[in-house]
Design goal:
This protein is of the alpha+beta class. About 15% of the residues lie in helices and about 15% in strands. It has one domain. It has a two-stranded antiparallel ribbon. A two-stranded antiparallel sheet has the order 2-3. The structure holds zinc ion (2 copies).
Length: about 90
């Protein structure tokens, strides 16, 4: 993962691994640790908001646009994330 950078496509703010994101179910977590899937309810947030109180711009961007790095590595990572989005936790719906 050393060659992959995660940052806001709009202002270049970098997430620092803290649980800044909050799901509609009330769960707080680091959205980049799960590929934008809420660990509480399984909802996938295809858009990710930049975190104002941590120095970001508060704008929403597609989650996959946050990943930057060597093209083929990032491409592979994005495919893995998209695959994980197809797994719907049946027991929650
Ligand atoms: Zn949730
Ligand atoms: Zn931003």
């Amino acid at each position: 993962m050393d060659n992959i950078h995660i940052r806001c496509p709009k202002c270049k703010w970098k997430p620092d691994g803290k649980p800044y994101w909050r799901c509609s179910c009330g769960t707080r977590w680091d959205t980049f640790s799960t590929g934008a899937r809420c660990p509480g309810c399984g909802k996938v947030w295809e858009d990710t908001q930049c975190v104002t109180h941590a120095g970001g711009c508060s704008k929403w961007s597609p989650h996959l646009d946050w990943y930057e790095g060597l093209n083929d590595i990032v491409k592979k990572l994005k495919e893995e994330i998209k695959e994980s989005w197809q797994l719907v936790p049946l027991e929650k719906y």
